[in-house]
Amino acid sequence: MANIINFLSLEASDNFLLFWLKEILIAVAIFALFWVSSLLIRLFLTKWAPRLTSFTSTDLDDRILQRITPPVCLLVVLAGLYYAVKSLPFPEKTHVAAAGTVFILNIIVLTNISWRVIDEVLSWYGNRLAERHGVGVDRQVIPPLEKLITIFLIGIALMITLKHFNYDILSVVTALGIGSLAIGMAAKDTLANMISGFTLMVDRPFRIGDRIKLASGQWGDVSDIGLRTTKIKTVDNTVLIIPNSELCNTTLINLAFPDPRGKGRVNVGVGYESNVEQVKNILIEVALAVPEVLPEPAPDAYFISFGDSALDMSLFFWVEDYTRIFAVTDMINEQIIKRFRQEGINIPYPMRTVLLEKEQ
Question: In the chain, how many H helices and how many E strands?
Protein backbone atom coordinates (compact mmCIF):
# COMPACT_ATOMS: atom_id res chain seq x y z
CA MET A 1 0.00 0.00 0.00
CA ALA A 2 2.85 2.36 0.87
CA ASN A 3 4.54 1.56 -2.40
CA ILE A 4 1.39 2.43 -4.29
CA ILE A 5 1.12 5.76 -2.47
CA ASN A 6 4.79 6.51 -3.18
CA PHE A 7 4.31 5.64 -6.82
CA LEU A 8 1.26 7.90 -7.13
CA SER A 9 3.12 10.68 -5.34
CA LEU A 10 6.08 10.37 -7.69
CA GLU A 11 3.80 10.29 -10.70
CA ALA A 12 1.94 13.41 -9.49
CA SER A 13 5.27 15.11 -8.85
CA ASP A 14 6.46 14.22 -12.35
CA ASN A 15 3.23 15.51 -13.86
CA PHE A 16 3.59 18.71 -11.89
CA LEU A 17 7.15 19.17 -13.07
CA LEU A 18 6.18 18.40 -16.66
CA PHE A 19 3.32 20.90 -16.46
CA TRP A 20 5.55 23.67 -15.16
CA LEU A 21 8.30 22.78 -17.63
CA LYS A 22 5.79 23.07 -20.45
CA GLU A 23 4.48 26.42 -19.20
CA ILE A 24 7.99 27.78 -18.70
CA LEU A 25 9.01 26.68 -22.20
CA ILE A 26 5.95 28.44 -23.63
CA ALA A 27 6.84 31.60 -21.68
CA VAL A 28 10.46 31.40 -22.82
CA ALA A 29 9.30 30.93 -26.41
CA ILE A 30 7.07 33.99 -26.17
CA PHE A 31 9.89 36.06 -24.70
CA ALA A 32 12.36 34.77 -27.32
CA LEU A 33 9.94 35.70 -30.10
CA PHE A 34 9.68 39.27 -28.83
CA TRP A 35 13.44 39.43 -28.25
CA VAL A 36 14.13 38.41 -31.86
CA SER A 37 11.51 40.94 -32.97
CA SER A 38 13.36 43.66 -31.04
CA LEU A 39 16.59 42.75 -32.88
CA LEU A 40 14.81 42.97 -36.23
CA ILE A 41 13.25 46.31 -35.26
CA ARG A 42 16.67 47.64 -34.22
CA LEU A 43 18.10 46.51 -37.54
CA PHE A 44 15.29 48.23 -39.42
CA LEU A 45 15.54 51.48 -37.43
CA THR A 46 19.35 51.69 -37.73
CA LYS A 47 19.88 50.41 -41.29
CA TRP A 48 16.78 50.80 -43.43
CA ALA A 49 14.78 53.64 -41.88
CA PRO A 50 17.64 56.20 -42.30
CA ARG A 51 17.64 55.46 -46.02
CA LEU A 52 13.98 56.42 -46.19
CA THR A 53 14.41 59.57 -44.11
CA SER A 54 17.37 60.68 -46.24
CA PHE A 55 14.88 61.79 -48.90
CA THR A 56 13.38 64.43 -46.61
CA SER A 57 14.67 68.01 -46.49
CA THR A 58 15.03 68.13 -42.70
CA ASP A 59 17.07 66.11 -40.23
CA LEU A 60 14.24 66.02 -37.69
CA ASP A 61 13.17 62.49 -38.62
CA ASP A 62 16.79 61.25 -38.43
CA ARG A 63 17.19 62.71 -34.94
CA ILE A 64 13.89 61.19 -33.81
CA LEU A 65 14.93 57.76 -35.10
CA GLN A 66 18.25 58.01 -33.29
CA ARG A 67 16.54 58.99 -30.01
CA ILE A 68 13.76 56.37 -30.02
CA THR A 69 15.63 53.31 -31.29
CA PRO A 70 16.96 52.10 -27.86
CA PRO A 71 13.69 52.57 -25.90
CA VAL A 72 11.58 51.08 -28.72
CA CYS A 73 13.68 47.91 -28.68
CA LEU A 74 13.45 47.82 -24.88
CA LEU A 75 9.68 48.28 -25.10
CA VAL A 76 9.38 45.22 -27.36
CA VAL A 77 11.48 43.15 -24.96
CA LEU A 78 9.40 44.27 -21.97
CA ALA A 79 6.20 43.55 -23.90
CA GLY A 80 7.49 40.01 -24.45
CA LEU A 81 8.29 39.72 -20.75
CA TYR A 82 4.76 40.93 -19.91
CA TYR A 83 3.05 38.33 -22.09
CA ALA A 84 5.47 35.63 -20.94
CA VAL A 85 4.71 36.33 -17.28
CA LYS A 86 1.00 36.56 -18.07
CA SER A 87 1.06 33.09 -19.68
CA LEU A 88 2.46 31.45 -16.52
CA PRO A 89 -0.15 29.89 -14.18
CA PHE A 90 0.84 31.85 -11.08
CA PRO A 91 -1.57 32.34 -8.19
CA GLU A 92 -3.81 35.33 -8.73
CA LYS A 93 -2.02 37.71 -6.36
CA THR A 94 1.43 36.72 -7.62
CA HIS A 95 0.23 36.98 -11.21
CA VAL A 96 -1.23 40.45 -10.67
CA ALA A 97 1.91 41.68 -8.91
CA ALA A 98 4.36 40.28 -11.50
CA ALA A 99 2.36 41.25 -14.60
CA GLY A 100 1.50 44.64 -13.06
CA THR A 101 5.15 45.41 -12.40
CA VAL A 102 6.10 44.62 -15.99
CA PHE A 103 3.12 46.66 -17.26
CA ILE A 104 4.27 49.68 -15.27
CA LEU A 105 7.75 49.32 -16.78
CA ASN A 106 6.19 49.24 -20.25
CA ILE A 107 4.21 52.41 -19.54
CA ILE A 108 7.36 54.15 -18.28
CA VAL A 109 9.27 53.21 -21.44
CA LEU A 110 6.37 54.20 -23.69
CA THR A 111 6.11 57.58 -21.93
CA ASN A 112 9.86 58.03 -22.39
CA ILE A 113 9.53 57.34 -26.11
CA SER A 114 6.75 59.91 -26.42
CA TRP A 115 8.81 62.45 -24.51
CA ARG A 116 11.87 61.89 -26.71
CA VAL A 117 9.85 62.47 -29.86
CA ILE A 118 8.25 65.63 -28.45
CA ASP A 119 11.62 66.87 -27.16
CA GLU A 120 13.16 66.60 -30.62
CA VAL A 121 10.17 68.34 -32.22
CA LEU A 122 10.32 71.17 -29.67
CA SER A 123 14.07 71.51 -30.14
CA TRP A 124 13.60 71.74 -33.91
CA TYR A 125 10.78 74.27 -33.52
CA GLY A 126 12.87 76.29 -31.06
CA ASN A 127 15.67 76.56 -33.60
CA ARG A 128 13.20 77.81 -36.20
CA LEU A 129 11.86 80.38 -33.74
CA ALA A 130 15.41 81.58 -33.07
CA GLU A 131 16.05 81.94 -36.80
CA ARG A 132 12.83 83.89 -37.42
CA HIS A 133 12.51 85.99 -34.26
CA GLY A 134 16.07 86.13 -32.96
CA VAL A 135 17.95 84.31 -30.24
CA GLY A 136 16.15 84.33 -26.91
CA VAL A 137 12.60 83.77 -28.10
CA ASP A 138 13.05 79.99 -28.08
CA ARG A 139 14.25 80.13 -24.46
CA GLN A 140 11.05 81.91 -23.49
CA VAL A 141 8.59 79.66 -25.32
CA ILE A 142 10.06 76.14 -25.27
CA PRO A 143 10.72 75.57 -21.50
CA PRO A 144 7.13 76.37 -20.38
CA LEU A 145 5.80 74.26 -23.23
CA GLU A 146 8.06 71.38 -22.19
CA LYS A 147 6.74 71.56 -18.63
CA LEU A 148 3.11 71.54 -19.78
CA ILE A 149 3.71 68.55 -22.06
CA THR A 150 5.61 66.70 -19.32
CA ILE A 151 2.71 67.16 -16.91
CA PHE A 152 0.27 66.01 -19.61
CA LEU A 153 2.31 62.85 -20.40
CA ILE A 154 2.69 61.95 -16.72
CA GLY A 155 -1.05 62.43 -16.21
CA ILE A 156 -1.90 60.19 -19.17
CA ALA A 157 0.54 57.50 -17.99
CA LEU A 158 -0.91 57.63 -14.47
CA MET A 159 -4.49 57.29 -15.71
CA ILE A 160 -3.59 54.34 -17.96
CA THR A 161 -1.86 52.61 -15.03
CA LEU A 162 -4.78 53.18 -12.68
CA LYS A 163 -7.21 51.95 -15.33
CA HIS A 164 -5.15 48.77 -15.77
CA PHE A 165 -5.44 47.99 -12.06
CA ASN A 166 -9.22 48.66 -12.18
CA TYR A 167 -9.10 51.88 -10.19
CA ASP A 168 -11.86 54.42 -10.77
CA ILE A 169 -10.19 57.27 -12.63
CA LEU A 170 -13.41 59.26 -12.96
CA SER A 171 -12.85 60.90 -9.59
CA VAL A 172 -9.26 61.77 -10.55
CA VAL A 173 -10.37 63.31 -13.86
CA THR A 174 -13.15 65.21 -12.09
CA ALA A 175 -10.73 66.59 -9.50
CA LEU A 176 -8.29 67.62 -12.21
CA GLY A 177 -11.08 69.29 -14.18
CA ILE A 178 -12.33 71.25 -11.17
CA GLY A 179 -8.77 72.25 -10.24
CA SER A 180 -8.04 73.38 -13.80
CA LEU A 181 -11.26 75.39 -13.88
CA ALA A 182 -10.38 77.12 -10.60
CA ILE A 183 -6.87 77.92 -11.80
CA GLY A 184 -8.22 79.16 -15.13
CA MET A 185 -10.73 81.49 -13.46
CA ALA A 186 -8.12 82.87 -11.06
CA ALA A 187 -5.49 83.49 -13.72
CA LYS A 188 -7.62 84.11 -16.80
CA ASP A 189 -5.81 87.34 -17.74
CA THR A 190 -2.39 85.73 -17.40
CA LEU A 191 -3.51 82.68 -19.39
CA ALA A 192 -5.02 84.93 -22.07
CA ASN A 193 -1.72 86.78 -22.41
CA MET A 194 0.24 83.52 -22.53
CA ILE A 195 -2.02 82.05 -25.21
CA SER A 196 -1.75 85.31 -27.13
CA GLY A 197 2.04 85.10 -26.79
CA PHE A 198 2.01 81.66 -28.41
CA THR A 199 -0.29 83.05 -31.11
CA LEU A 200 2.16 85.86 -31.85
CA MET A 201 4.99 83.32 -32.11
CA VAL A 202 3.08 81.15 -34.56
CA ASP A 203 1.28 83.83 -36.60
CA ARG A 204 4.36 86.11 -36.68
CA PRO A 205 2.72 89.49 -37.41
CA PHE A 206 6.07 91.01 -36.41
CA ARG A 207 9.55 89.92 -35.37
CA ILE A 208 12.11 91.21 -32.93
CA GLY A 209 13.69 94.27 -34.51
CA ASP A 210 10.66 95.18 -36.64
CA ARG A 211 9.24 98.68 -36.38
CA ILE A 212 5.49 98.66 -35.75
CA LYS A 213 2.85 101.35 -35.39
CA LEU A 214 -0.14 100.80 -33.10
CA ALA A 215 -3.71 101.94 -33.65
CA SER A 216 -3.16 104.51 -30.87
CA GLY A 217 -0.43 106.17 -32.96
CA GLN A 218 2.48 104.97 -30.80
CA TRP A 219 5.29 103.29 -32.65
CA GLY A 220 8.76 101.85 -32.10
CA ASP A 221 11.00 98.82 -32.58
CA VAL A 222 10.06 95.44 -31.09
CA SER A 223 12.78 94.58 -28.58
CA ASP A 224 11.29 91.50 -26.92
CA ILE A 225 8.35 89.11 -27.34
CA GLY A 226 7.58 87.44 -24.02
CA LEU A 227 4.93 85.00 -22.86
CA ARG A 228 2.89 87.72 -21.16
CA THR A 229 3.98 91.03 -22.70
CA THR A 230 5.74 92.48 -25.72
CA LYS A 231 8.27 95.28 -25.27
CA ILE A 232 8.58 98.07 -27.84
CA LYS A 233 11.45 100.55 -27.74
CA THR A 234 10.30 103.97 -28.92
CA VAL A 235 12.45 106.58 -30.66
CA ASP A 236 12.83 108.60 -27.45
CA ASN A 237 14.56 105.58 -25.82
CA THR A 238 11.63 104.52 -23.65
CA VAL A 239 10.13 101.02 -23.48
CA LEU A 240 6.46 100.50 -24.18
CA ILE A 241 5.19 97.31 -22.48
CA ILE A 242 1.97 95.95 -23.99
CA PRO A 243 0.04 92.81 -22.89
CA ASN A 244 0.02 90.21 -25.66
CA SER A 245 -3.77 89.89 -25.57
CA GLU A 246 -4.08 93.56 -26.56
CA LEU A 247 -1.67 93.13 -29.47
CA CYS A 248 -3.65 90.13 -30.74
CA ASN A 249 -6.90 92.11 -30.69
CA THR A 250 -5.74 95.38 -32.22
CA THR A 251 -4.79 96.70 -35.63
CA LEU A 252 -1.12 97.51 -36.15
CA ILE A 253 1.18 98.43 -39.02
CA ASN A 254 4.44 96.56 -39.52
CA LEU A 255 6.80 98.96 -41.28
CA ALA A 256 9.36 96.18 -41.87
CA PHE A 257 7.00 94.06 -44.02
CA PRO A 258 7.06 92.95 -46.78
CA ASP A 259 10.65 94.27 -47.03
CA PRO A 260 12.73 96.89 -45.17
CA ARG A 261 12.18 99.58 -47.78
CA GLY A 262 10.27 102.61 -46.55
CA LYS A 263 8.25 105.34 -48.22
CA GLY A 264 8.65 108.94 -47.11
CA ARG A 265 6.54 112.00 -47.75
CA VAL A 266 7.29 115.72 -47.70
CA ASN A 267 4.46 118.26 -47.74
CA VAL A 268 5.13 121.86 -48.78
CA GLY A 269 3.00 124.85 -49.75
CA VAL A 270 3.97 127.33 -52.49
CA GLY A 271 2.49 130.67 -53.50
CA TYR A 272 -0.43 130.87 -55.90
CA GLU A 273 1.78 132.67 -58.39
CA SER A 274 4.18 129.66 -58.63
CA ASN A 275 4.53 127.43 -61.69
CA VAL A 276 3.21 124.05 -60.57
CA GLU A 277 5.17 122.02 -63.13
CA GLN A 278 8.39 123.80 -62.19
CA VAL A 279 7.79 123.09 -58.50
CA LYS A 280 7.12 119.41 -59.18
CA ASN A 281 10.32 119.10 -61.25
CA ILE A 282 12.37 120.79 -58.53
CA LEU A 283 10.99 118.46 -55.86
CA ILE A 284 11.88 115.36 -57.92
CA GLU A 285 15.36 116.71 -58.73
CA VAL A 286 16.03 117.44 -55.07
CA ALA A 287 14.94 113.93 -54.05
CA LEU A 288 17.11 112.22 -56.68
CA ALA A 289 20.11 114.31 -55.61
CA VAL A 290 20.01 112.70 -52.13
CA PRO A 291 22.12 109.48 -52.28
CA GLU A 292 19.85 107.43 -50.02
CA VAL A 293 16.72 108.02 -52.12
CA LEU A 294 16.06 105.03 -54.40
CA PRO A 295 15.86 105.75 -58.14
CA GLU A 296 13.42 102.83 -58.45
CA PRO A 297 10.62 103.27 -57.49
CA ALA A 298 11.25 106.82 -58.68
CA PRO A 299 10.22 109.84 -56.57
CA ASP A 300 6.88 111.43 -57.45
CA ALA A 301 5.56 114.94 -56.84
CA TYR A 302 1.88 115.85 -56.81
CA PHE A 303 -0.28 118.95 -56.61
CA ILE A 304 -2.56 117.91 -53.75
CA SER A 305 -5.02 120.73 -53.10
CA PHE A 306 -5.73 124.44 -53.06
CA GLY A 307 -4.89 125.66 -49.58
CA ASP A 308 -6.12 128.78 -47.83
CA SER A 309 -2.93 130.67 -48.64
CA ALA A 310 -0.81 128.23 -50.71
CA LEU A 311 -0.83 125.48 -53.31
CA ASP A 312 -0.28 122.24 -51.38
CA MET A 313 2.36 119.99 -52.93
CA SER A 314 3.58 116.53 -51.81
CA LEU A 315 6.79 114.67 -52.62
CA PHE A 316 6.93 110.87 -52.24
CA PHE A 317 10.20 108.95 -52.19
CA TRP A 318 11.59 105.53 -51.23
CA VAL A 319 14.62 104.58 -49.12
CA GLU A 320 16.34 101.22 -48.71
CA ASP A 321 15.93 101.15 -44.92
CA TYR A 322 12.75 102.43 -43.28
CA THR A 323 14.74 103.54 -40.23
CA ARG A 324 16.41 106.21 -42.41
CA ILE A 325 13.20 107.98 -43.45
CA PHE A 326 13.53 110.79 -40.89
CA ALA A 327 17.18 111.46 -41.69
CA VAL A 328 16.51 111.48 -45.44
CA THR A 329 13.47 113.70 -44.96
CA ASP A 330 15.68 116.20 -43.11
CA MET A 331 18.17 116.28 -46.00
CA ILE A 332 15.41 116.72 -48.57
CA ASN A 333 13.81 119.57 -46.62
CA GLU A 334 17.13 121.40 -46.44
CA GLN A 335 17.63 121.07 -50.19
CA ILE A 336 14.03 122.08 -50.99
CA ILE A 337 14.20 125.38 -49.11
CA LYS A 338 17.62 126.06 -50.66
CA ARG A 339 16.37 125.45 -54.24
CA PHE A 340 13.14 127.41 -53.68
CA ARG A 341 15.17 130.43 -52.59
CA GLN A 342 17.40 130.08 -55.63
CA GLU A 343 14.43 129.81 -58.00
CA GLY A 344 12.44 132.55 -56.29
CA ILE A 345 9.59 130.27 -55.29
CA ASN A 346 7.69 131.65 -52.34
CA ILE A 347 6.52 129.61 -49.36
CA PRO A 348 3.76 131.91 -48.06
CA TYR A 349 2.65 132.42 -44.50
CA PRO A 350 -1.02 131.85 -43.71
CA MET A 351 -2.93 135.02 -44.58
CA ARG A 352 -6.38 136.28 -43.65
CA THR A 353 -8.21 139.23 -45.16
CA VAL A 354 -10.42 141.04 -42.66
CA LEU A 355 -13.01 143.58 -43.93
CA LEU A 356 -14.36 146.10 -41.46
CA GLU A 357 -17.53 147.88 -42.22
CA LYS A 358 -18.09 151.32 -40.77
CA GLU A 359 -21.43 151.76 -39.11
CA GLN A 360 -23.54 154.51 -40.67
Answer: 10, 8
